[in-house]
Amino acid sequence: MACCVLQITGLIFGGVGMVGTLAATAMPQWRVSAYVDGNIVVFETIWEGLWMDCISQLGLRLQCKFYDSVLALPPPLEAFRALMCLAMGLAIAAFLMAIAGVKYTRHSTQGTPAISSFILAAGVAFLLTGTLVLIPVSWTGGSIVRDFYDPRVPAPLKRELGAALFVGWGSSALLLAAGTMYC
Which domains does the chain have, with CATH numbers? Predict the structure, then answer.
């Protein structure tokens, strides 16, 4: 009975982590404009994401523009896109393996070796997915903090941590927890 509860909990954590990975990849709020000067009147907010840049003017008007060329992107952004897309595909595959493992566990008349293969594969896939999500999110967060405190970076170019980074960290933690439960 405890095994089934652990599998269902891992399935829920993995599902929420998968949805969080999809959301973090699609969200444009990876880097958000920072206001470090004494100016309290702010008319626009700039968001930078993996796929597009957005400008919100007074919170009323939102304009987003997809990046024009893949070849014009900086190499780290290309790598982060690739890692997040790979993580999305692996998260979906791991979730489907976990569903098959839980379903196969319930209707199994054989011993535990047939049960553990789906569950173990889903656990390894969830652990790998959590690591793949953690790398670009933490790297971006580290570069934002480094640039924020660098006196050589002009104030208008300073950025803050966006909501997508927090979603990415949360989903990575859930995916790693699901992988640990299944392994």
Answer: 1-29+74-182 (1.20.140.150)
- What gap in Å lies between CA 174 and CA 127, rounded to an integer? 10
Q: What is the pLDDT of residues 3-59, one digit of tens each?
A: 678 888 989 999 999 999 999 999 999 998 877 666 565 678 888 989 999 988 877
Strand-pair partners of 31: 48, 161
Residue 157 carries which DSSP code?
G
Q: Is the dihedral of CA 139, 141, 144, 148 positive or negative?
A: negative
- pTM, whole model, 2 decimals? 0.86
